[in-house]
Specification:
By secondary structure, this protein is of the alpha+beta class. It is built from five helices and nine strands. About 20% of the residues are buried.
Length: about 200
């Protein structure tokens, strides 16, 4: 079964981290690109209750992704993941809605993907800050690259971007449905907002 093995870290200086990666020999796998993501669920939010994800993403391509519930293996998040490229973003949305799923949230980000030591490094710019995701073939490769980059594994973030969004909406008392740059343009975040987070 295909698995996603990853660790996520909040970073305050993404350009410096990118420069370090290039110095270490990282190769650009995908240039910086804007993403629009639609999260789907049933009217009763069954998927979320079961910690499952059904996502339709549009960047340079359109992709449909399903993720099963995650668990920690050697302190690294692992979860089943199935993804297919689809030919038409709008038509795929209509198919999902025709099957009874509904969009419950939209989220935006900019992402650049590099690769070093067989690990994909996603440099993510979210409406609430910058993050790096390390995704590799094993927990050992992910943890080894985190050490090489000087990322503290004790400060990794286990929450998905959407669960983190829900947490920040509560702590910042935000009344917004979608995770967009427009909705967050006047909201300030600091490193302490991403410390001592819940693990699910």
């Amino acid at each position: 079964m295909p698995e996603e093995i990853e660790a996520k870290f909040y970073v305050t200086d993404l350009p410096s981290l990118r420069a370090k990666l290039l110095t270490l020999g990282a190769q650009v796998k995908q240039k910086r690109v804007y993403e629009q993501n639609l999260r789907f669920d049933t009217p009763r939010m069954t998927l979320s209750a079961e910690k499952k994800v059904l996502r339709l993403r549009q960047d340079e391509k359109a992709r449909l992704t399903f993720k099963g519930p995650g668990y920690l293996r050697d302190a690294v998040l692992v979860r089943p993941e199935f993804e297919v490229e689809v030919g038409d973003f709008a038509q795929t949305r209509q198919i999902l809605e025709g099957l009874g799923y509904q969009v419950y949230s939209l989220y935006e980000k900019y992402r650049e993907t590099l690769n070093l030591d067989d690990v994909d490094i996603m440099l993510d710019e979210m409406p609430y800050g910058s993050f790096v995701e390390l995704e590799g073939p094993s927990t050992q490769t992910v943890k080894a690259l985190a050490r090489k980059l000087g990322l503290s594994f004790e400060k990794r973030i286990v929450l998905s971007y959407m669960v983190l969004f829900d947490h920040l909406k509560t702590t910042k008392e935000l009344d917004v449905r979608d995770l967009t740059f427009e909705n967050f343009k006047n909201v300030d975040f600091k490193p302490s907002d991403f410390e001592n987070l819940p693990e699910n």
